[in-house]
Specification:
- By secondary structure, the protein is mainly beta.
- The chain has one domain: Porin (Beta Barrel).
- Helices cover 7% and strands 49% of the residues.
- It has one helix and 20 strands.
- A 16-stranded antiparallel β-barrel has the order 1-3-4-5-6-7-8-10-11-12-13-16-17-18-19-20.
- A hairpin with a 4-residue loop joins strand 19 and strand 20.
- The two termini are 36 Å apart.
Length: 430
C-alpha cells in the first residue's frame, strides 16, 4: 500500500520533472527557431532518425556521513554553509551531531543531433538537494535545462558571470563561501576566438531584497497603509521590482598553463512599496577575475576575486542585493549592498589513486543602516581532505571543514566538522 508521504514524494518528483522538461523544451525551441531545417518532410531520405540522436544518461550516487562538532540550521546540516552558523547561543543544541545524507546524488541526460552544418544540443539535470520550501528534504531540484545551437544558448545553466572551473575538488555540497556560483535562466551568445572566447548574456534579474529591521514592524504604523494590509508586517509591503534583465560579459583566455577569465555584470535593482506606491531603483555592477593554473602534472591552483554592488545573489552566501539605507521606515530607501568574495584552493594529486585539496575562502558584505543587527556580514571557510579512487568511476575519503560567521553587530560563531563520503559515477550512452 502506498502511503500518503510516498504519494507526495512521487507527485513532487513528477511535477519537478515536468517543469524541467518544459524548461528544456522552451530552450530548445528558442535555438531551433534559428536553426536551419534538415529535412523538408518526414518522407525525405535525409530526415532524422534515432540513429542520428546521441544520448547520454549520467549521474552519480553520493552518500555522506558527517560528524558536526556544533550544530547549524537542521535544514542545512548536511553541508557547512557559513550563513547558517548560529552566532547567538546554541538554538539547535550544544552538543555535536551525526548526520547522514544522499541529497547530493545527481542524475542528468544530454543529447545532440545534426542541424544543417552544425548540431543542436540539450542538457537536463537534477539533484535531490531540496531548498526553499523543500529545505532539508530529499526532493528533486532542477540544476540545468540548457539547449545550444552553434554559438547560441538558452535555458538555465551556470551564469555567464561565473567561472565553474574554480570550484575545488571538495566533497562538501556548498563549496567555497564568496565564490560566484549561480545557475540562472539566460540567453547567451558566445564568440569563439581561436582557443579563447567572448560571451554575452541577458539573465533573470531576481533581485534579493532584505527588509532588515522592518520585517517585524506592524504595517498599521505606516502612514497611508491600506486597510487590507493592516495587521501584516511591513516586510510584506516592500517588494523587489525586476523589469530589466541582468547583462553580463565574459572573456576567457585558454593556455597550456591553464586559463584566466574576466567577467562583468550590470543590473537594474528595482524596488517598490505597496503602501504608498513609491518606487526607485539602484544600479548594480560587478567584476569577477579568476584563474586556474596547471601545476606539475595534474595539480591545479584555483583563484577568484570578485567585487561589486548589488550582486549578492550571484555569490555563495551573498544573500542579498539591496537593503534599507535608514532605520526610519517612513523615509528609508533601498541601496545596493557592496560585496567582496575571495577564493584560493589547491588540488594536489599524490598519485593516480590519491588526492588532497586544501584552501580558504571568504565573503564580506557592507552593512546598511536599515539592516537588522543579527544579519550576516562576513564568513570564511577553510577545507582540507584526502580522497582515494579505487576505480575510475568511484572515490571515497575524509574531509575537514571549518567555518566562521560574523554578524553586523560583531557577534560571531564557528563550526567544524569531519565528513566521510562515498561517490560512484555512472553513464549510459546509446
Amino acid at each position: 500500500m502506498v502511503t500518503q508521504s510516498l504519494k507526495g514524494d512521487l507527485l513532487t518528483a513528477v511535477r519537478s520533472g515536468l517543469r524541467g522538461l518544459r524548461a528544456v523544451a522552451l530552450a530548445a525551441a528558442t535555438v531551433l527557431a534559428l536553426a536551419p531545417a534538415t529535412a523538408s518532410s518526414a518522407d525525405d531520405e535525409d530526415a532524422l532518425g534515432i540513429e542520428d540522436l546521441n544520448l547520454n544518461v549520467y549521474g552519480f550516487v553520493q552518500a555522506d556521513f558527517i560528524y558536526d562538532f556544533k550544530r547549524v540550521d537542521p535544514d542545512w546540516n548536511d553541508t557547512l554553509r557559513v550563513s547558517t552558523i548560529p552566532t547567538r547561543g546554541q538554538p539547535y543544541g550544544g552538543d555535536g551531531e551525526f548526520v547522514t545524507s544522499v541529497r547530493q546524488s545527481r542524475m542528468g541526460m544530454n543529447a545532440s543531433y545534426p542541424a544543417g552544418d552544425s548540431e543542436v544540443t540539450g542538457l537536463l539535470e537534477f539533484e535531490w538537494f531540496g531548498t526553499g520550501g523543500d529545505a532539508g528534504q530529499t526532493t528533486p531540484r532542477l540544476r540545468h535545462a540548457w539547449a545550444t545551437w552553434n554559438n547560441l544558448g538558452a535555458g538555465q545553466t551556470w551564469s555567464n558571470f561565473m567561472d565553474a572551473d574554480v570550484f575545488p575538488n571538495t566533497i562538501d555540497y556548498w563549496g567555497p563561501t564568496g565564490m560566484v556560483f549561480y545557475r540562472n535562466q539566460q540567453l547567451r551568445y558566445t564568440f569563439p576566438m581561436g582557443d579563447d572566447e567572448l560571451a554575452f548574456s541577458i539573465e533573470d534579474p531576481d533581485t534579493a531584497l532584505d527588509v532588515g529591521r522592518f520585517r517585524d514592524v506592524d504595517s498599521c504604523d505606516l502612514p497611508g497603509s491600506p486597510g487590507n494590509n493592516c495587521g501584516s508586517t511591513a516586510g510584506e509591503i516592500f517588494q523587489s521590482k525586476n523589469d530589466v534583465p541582468d547583462f553580463t560579459a565574459r572573456y576567457r583566455n585558454n593556455n597550456d598553463w591553464g586559463h584566466w577569465q574576466l567577467a562583468g555584470i550590470v543590473r537594474k535593482l528595482g524596488y517598490e512599496r505597496l503602501d504608498n506606491g513609491n518606487s526607485d531603483y539602484e544600479v548594480g555592477y560587478g567584476v569577477n577575475a579568476s584563474t586556474v593554473i596547471n601545476m606539475f602534472s595534474r595539480d591545479k591552483l584555483k583563484l577568484q576575486v570578485a567585487y561589486g554592488e548589488g550582486i549578492g545573489n550571484y555569490f555563495n552566501d551573498g544573500g542579498l542585493d539591496i537593503a534599507p539605507d535608514s532605520d526610519d521606515i517612513n523615509t528609508a530607501d533601498a541601496t545596493a549592498v557592496t560585496i567582496l568574495g575571495i577564493v584560493a584552493y589547491y588540488d594536489h594529486y599524490w598519485s593516480e589513486k590519491w588526492s588532497t585539496t586544501v584552501g580558504w575562502s571568504m565573503t564580506d558584505l557592507d552593512d546598511e543602516d536599515g539592516q537588522a543587527f543579527d544579519e550576516f556580514k562576513k564568513g570564511q571557510i577553510a577545507t582540507a581532505n584526502l580522497l582515494f579512487y579505487p576505480t575510475s568511476n568511484t572515490y571515497t575519503g575524509f574531509e575537514f571543514t571549518w567555518g566562521e560567521r560574523e554578524d553586523i553587530d560583531g557577534e560571531d560563531g564557528d563550526d567544524y566538522r569531519i565528513q566521510f563520503s562515498f561517490h560512484m559515477n555512472f553513464s549510459l550512452k546509446n
